[in-house]
Amino acid sequence: MTQAAPIRVGLIGCGGYGRQHLQRMSEIRAVELVGLADPSTKARALAREVVEQPDLPGFRDHRSLLLKIQPDAVVISTPHTLHHRQILDCLEAGCHVLCEKPLICSTQDARDVIAARDATGRILGIAYQRHTLPPYMYCREVIAAGAIGEVTFVSCWQAQAWYDLSRGTWRVKPELSGGGQLNDAGSHLLDAVLWMTQLQPEVVAAFVDKLDTEVDIVSAASVRCRGDSLCSFSIVGNAPLPGFGVWEDIVIWGTTGTLTIRNMQDVYCLRPTHPQQKVPRREMPKGSGPDTNFIAAIRGAEEIAAPAECGLSVIQLTEGILRAAESGKAVKIKQ
Ligand SMILES: NC(=O)c1ccc[n+]([C@@H]2O[C@H](COP(=O)([O-])OP(=O)(O)OC[C@H]3O[C@@H](n4cnc5c(N)ncnc54)[C@H](O)[C@@H]3O)[C@@H](O)[C@H]2O)c1
C-alpha cells in the first residue's frame, strides 16, 4: 500500500498560542512542518525551539511564506484584525486554513472569507477547541437528539483576569484586537452556546464596561432567539481567579431536562430518563483537538469541526451586543 504524501503545514503567527499549534502539529504523523511567518525574530526562534527544527524556514511576512514555500495548509494565530487579509491570501494561494478565534472582526469580513472558501474549494476551520472537547460534544448530541426537549433558556458566564493579563498588549488596542474580552475568549462562549443549541439570536439588549481601556472588559447581554428562547451571557473580564486562567459555566434548560457544563470539564444532566447527575466520561464522545481534526478534514476522514459559518454567527451576535450597549436599546441582530 502506498503511503499518502504528508500534508505540508505552515504557521502564521508564532506567539504563545501559535507555538502550541506548532507543537501539536509536530505530533501528527501525517504532517510535515514547512515554514513560519512572524515579524518577530524572537517569536520565530522560539517556535523553532519548540519543535527542535532549527532550520525551519521563517519569514517576516505571510505572503513570503505562501510564495516561497507553497504550503498545503496553514494555521493562523495572529492578532484578530489581521485574520481577514491573511485568510484571503492563504485561500487564494490554494491553502487549507485553520484560523484561531475570532475568525474575523466584522460580519462583512466573515462573508468575504466564506465566499473565498467556496470559490477556492479549500477547507476553512476555526480553532474553537470546544467543538472537539467531550463535554461540549456530548451536550450538542443530547440537545440534537431532543433528549432535553426544546431549549428554552441558556445562562452562561466566563470569567478571567483578562484586564490584568492584557494590559499593554495588542489585545487592548482595538485596531489589532477588534475588541476586548467579548471578541477574544468570550468568542468561545458565544460560539459554544450557539453551536450546541443551534439557537438563532434575533434581538439583544446589553451593557458593556470598558473600565479605563478602549475595549470591552465586562459585558452582560440578554438575547431573544427565534422561537422565543432566551439566553443570558456574562463576560467578566476583571475577575480575581487565583489558580485558574479562566472559568466558564453554561446551563441549558430544555422543556424536559437541563444540562450544565461546569468549567469546561464536568457535565451535569437532569432529565427523567437519566437519573444520575454527573455524566461519566465514558458516556461522552471521544474528543480530539482542532489541529488533529483539521488534518483529518483535509484527508477527507472527518468534517471540519468548526466551519467558518460558526465565526459568522458569533460576529453577528458580538456586533449586536456592542451596538445594543452603545445605543442603550435592544437591537435586532443583523443577518
Ligand atoms: N483557542 C484558544 O483557547 C486561544 C488561546 C489563546 C490565544 N488564542 C488566539 O490565538 C491568536 C494569537 O494569540 P496569542 O495569545 O498567541 O498572541 P501572542 O501575542 O502571544 O502572539 C501573536 C503573534 O502574532 C505575531 N504577529 C503580529 N503581526 C503579525 C503578522 N502580520 N504576521 C504574522 N504574525 C504576526 C506577533 O509577533 C506574535 O508573535 C489570537 O487569535 C488569539 O485569540 C486562542
Can you characterise this structure?
This protein has 335 residues and is an alpha/beta fold. It has two domains: 7-129, NAD(P)-binding Rossmann-like Domain (Rossmann fold), CATH 3.40.50; 130-286 and 307-332, Dihydrodipicolinate Reductase, domain 2 (2-Layer Sandwich), CATH 3.30.360.10. 34% of the residues lie in helices and 24% in strands. It is built from eleven helices and 14 strands. It has an eight-stranded mixed beta sheet with strand order 13-12-11-7-10-9-8-14. A six-stranded parallel beta sheet has the order 3-2-1-4-5-6, with helices on both faces. Helix 4 (83-92) links the parallel strand 4 and strand 5. The N and C termini lie far apart (49 Å). The model has no long low-confidence stretch (mean pLDDT 96). Nicotinamide-adenine-dinucleotide is lined by residues 12-18, 37-40, 43, 62, 77-80, 82, 100-101, 127, 129, 184.
Q: Features of this protein?
A:
single chain, 335 residues, alpha/beta, Rossmann fold, Dihydrodipicolinate Reductase, domain 2, 2 domains, eight-stranded mixed β-sheet, six-stranded parallel β-sheet, 11 helices, 34% helix, binds nicotinamide-adenine-dinucleotide
